[in-house]
Amino acid sequence: MGGNNVDYSLYLVTDSTPAILGDKDICEVVEAALRGGVTCVQYRDKKSDTGLLVQTARKLHAVTQKYNVPLLINDRVDVALAVGCEGVHIGQDDLDVEEARRLLGHDKIIGVTVSNAEDVAAACRGGADYLGIGTVFATATKGNTKRIIGVDGLQRMLLQLAQAESTVKTVCIGGINASNVSRVVWQSTAHGKSLDGVAVVSAIMAAADPEASARELSKLVKTPPAFA
Ligand code: TZP
Ligand code: MG
User: 17, 80, 107, 193: least CB-packed within 10 angstroms?
Assistant: First the structure.
């Protein structure tokens, strides 16, 4: 499937709300993050109408293509198709992964949010390329996070995937920042299948210097901590 050769190690999820983006330009922030080492970008915008989503996604795609990094669209298969970007990220309340696959074909990337064993099994059966496992830690970025799974929950799902000998890729999301990323990656690697990456919103999108923040996170996700 489309997502197997993708580098998910530092996965940026955008946010267009004033609390996080402020009055900055989303394309400039994303480009700074790409210079800093972001390897995958998801355009997540719950507020804009379809016309603006397509317009912004096209601009973001022009930026991500310069860095040879995939652009995925949150929730909206139609927007991904209109823009011709690399795929989508869908949650449990969106289209089924099978339906998204029928619409997008096998060359596009489909990621699915999972927060328990049933979600994991269904997303894998449906042919997801990667799983976004979360919400790891409580976060102000996503107001309606029903399930905080903690590192324990993350480890349980990675163990489930290892036992099923799954080849699906994995990233974790929710409250990840420079002060906890090494611990999360290391603790996860020690149990079951290793994580392929970490996904962050505010640690980069709300940073005073998104390029420097991305560079720091990129270094941390690639370097085993001293105690490992
Ligand atoms: N899905 C689960 S938590 C989350 C999403 C989109 C938001 C994560 O934001 P942050 O700022 O990295 O905690
Ligand atoms: Mg969704």
Answer: 107
- Between the CA of 228 and the centroid of ligand 2 the distance, in Å, is 35
Q: Tell me how far apart the alpha carbons of residues 196 and 202 are, in angstroms, rounded to a whole number.
A: 20
ipTM value of the model?
A: 0.98
Tokens representing 151?
């590192």
Ligand 1 center from residue 188 Cα (angstroms): 18
Decide if pLDDT at 158 tops 90: yes
Distance (angstroms) between ligand 2 centre and the Cα of 93 equals 6
Atom of ligand 1 nearest to the CA of 20: 11
H/E element, 71? strand 71-74
CB 176 within 8 A of CB 162: no
Specify the pTM.
0.96
Max Cα separation, the chain?
49
